[in-house]
Amino acid sequence: MTEAEIKSALSSRTLPPGMAFDALQTISALANDVATQPAARELVIRMLAAKDLLRDDFHPLLDGLIRSVGLIPYADPDNARSLDDHYLMEAHRAPIPDEEDYFFHTLQLQIYRDLVAGRNVVLSATTSVGKSMVVDAVIASGLYNVIAIIVPTIALIDETRRRLGRRFAQTHEVVTHPTQQTDFSRPVIFVLTQERALARKDLDKVEFFVIDEFYKLEIDEKEPERSVDLNLVFARLAGQGAKFYLIGPHVSGVAGIAARYNPVFVPSEFSTVALDIVQFDLPRKGMPARRSSSSYAANSLPHARLLPVASTGDIPGGVSA
Predict the structure, then answer these.
(1) Cα-based distances in Å from 9 to 4, 50, 76, 119
(2) pLDDT band for position 315 (50/70/90)?
(3) What does 148-205 look like in DSSP terms, one character per residue?
(4) Domain 106-269+313-320 adopts which CATH fold?
(5) If DSSP codes are grouped into helix, strand and coil, which group holds residue 180?
(6) Is this structure's pTM higher than 0.90?
């Protein structure tokens, strides 16, 4: 079967046993080639969403493919039958409080290992890869006593504070306001916008920091003040020797940062979702509706349908899109 035939069969939910075996064989061949592994991963995700179509004796085969494309958290531990399977699962176990059975996927493990080895990391990837889980794992490692997480909005401060509070309230102090005091008697996590970070005078103790949506380091003509503030925060923290983890969507390079700090730049297409796009051509004033399947017109409203694997991221001036 071809990739297109597999997608069509899964979409229409018509996958008899003979066709299912052929599909698994095709996915296996794609997974064994680095160049086609992303395509294999997408097909595995789609197959997971239609797992009920497979005979029970095919489930171990699917689980083997799940592991081979790096989607370790979604593999069934009961189907890990060989010593190699068990070793692979344990190697991806994440040190997250209250998440004893949480496993990294392969990209998360790569980033985590780089960070705990003391490397600066810039990750350019989709929002679906679980970038914040790596941050929590670094916090849990205990390598750093004072950490700063710089987020773009106050809403994200609240969201991040709640997540960290659930996991680290007993071991860390979470600071979110410019006037909130801390005596550093226990490990501290600052969660701040760039504006709030600039207002604090005690960030000289920060040993490790995270910037979410780092592409905003590039000066934005519409909001230059915010970009300048973020650059000042980066320069302040990186300039004092703090290690960093920059998270954002797809960019092609980080020349300004790389020139001085030599980070590990990880541009990745790794994803844990498959995406179907359905186009709705809506009429504009004075114009009839149009249909087009080959490209998006200016008056199109695309609708994205996500297939999740399971219901369960010096003044640089060099970030290039």
Answers:
(1) 9, 10, 24, 44
(2) very low
(3) EEE-SSHHHHHHHHHHHHHHHTTT-EEE-STT-----SS-EEEEE-HHHHHH-S-GGG
(4) Rossmann fold (3.40.50)
(5) coil
(6) no
